[in-house]
Amino acid sequence: MKVKTILVSQPEPKVENSPYSRLIEKEKVKVDFRPFIHVEGVEAKSVRQQKIDLNNFTAIILTSRNSVDHFFRIAEEMRFKVPDTMKYFCQSEAVAYYLQKYVVYRKRKIYVGKRTFNELIPLIKKYKDEKFLLPSSDALKAAVPQALDEINVDWKRGVFYKTVISDLSDLRNVYYDILVFFSPSGIESLLKNFPDFEQKDTRIAVFGNSTINAATEAGLRIDIQAPTPETPSMTMALQKYITSVNK
Fold first, then answer.
1. Which is deepest, 46, 111, 158, 235, by most CB within 10 Å?
2. What is the pLDDT of residues 55-83, one digit of tens each?
3. Domains assigned to the chain
4. What whole-number distance in Å separates Cα of residue 45 and Cα of residue 54?
5. 3-class SS letters over the chain
């Protein structure tokens, strides 16, 4: 069956000429974006109940833009003035760049990993005398605390925000040829919103092993997967599939 419509379970990219724009133009398909999950901040009271005193930390580990936003939000709610001496360990350049929203970049001690959390570990390991805070969501990959424990640094996790399933009830009678998922939470949201969901001719596209596992466990048929050596991005995987079925 030919593909005419795609629903991506994420916010629409803010950049002009995104890979999706090129896909739309080249294949003449309709692509809609709708976050199946969203992030909500927890209250300062909840952070205090986790026995977290921001005065006790000399370094912050930031894994995403959300962790940046919610660390500074909680600091403000607690009336905690973040000292200029605070060290920031950012998982990627994108996170470090985003940090400029809150601090004067050149005046701070900022350490940047390449892309994955494991690539940040050698930098953290060099500063064993620091007391690290990891602001995170309620859903944290097990590999993150495991990696920090293995290098024996003084660290504590704080749940500063949580992942919440979005209300998709307005999509109940809307049909798409392909649904695109990037996380197990997206699959969970689909099934919570539509417990009677029947896949039928809907194609499911998934990114990453954890999402593949979640879709398989949910009994969904996976038609498109990424990343693969041939299609490292989701848009490339979609392009390849659409080209083959829309002949």
1. 158
2. 999 999 999 999 999 999 999 999 999 99
3. 5-36+167-245 (3.40.50.10090), 40-163 (3.40.50.10090)
4. 13
5. CCCCEEEECCCCCCCCCCHHHHHHHHHCCEEEECCCEEEEECCHHHHHHCCCCHHHCCEEEECCHHHHHHHHHHHHHCCCCCCCCCEEEECCHHHHHHHHHCCCHHHCEEEECCCCHHHHHHHHHCCCCCEEEEEEECCCCCHHHHHHHHCCCEEEEEEEEEEEECCCHHHCCCCCCEEEECCHHHHHHHHHHCCCCCCCCCEEEEECHHHHHHHHHCCCCEEEEECCCCCCCHHHHHHHHHHHHCC
Query: Could you give phi then psi for residue 48, rounded to 5 degrees?
Result: -65, -40
Strand order in the sheet with 178-181: 30-33, 5-8, 178-181, 203-207, 222-226
Using CB atoms within 10 A of its CB, is residue 219 exposed (0-12), middle (13-18) or buried (19+)? exposed
Asked if 148 contacts 134 with a C-beta cutoff of 8 angstroms, the reply is yes
Separation CA 109–CA 82 (nearest Å): 13
Full-model pTM: 0.78
Query: Which tens digit of pLDDT belongs to each residue from 166-193?
Result: 999 999 999 999 999 999 999 999 999 9
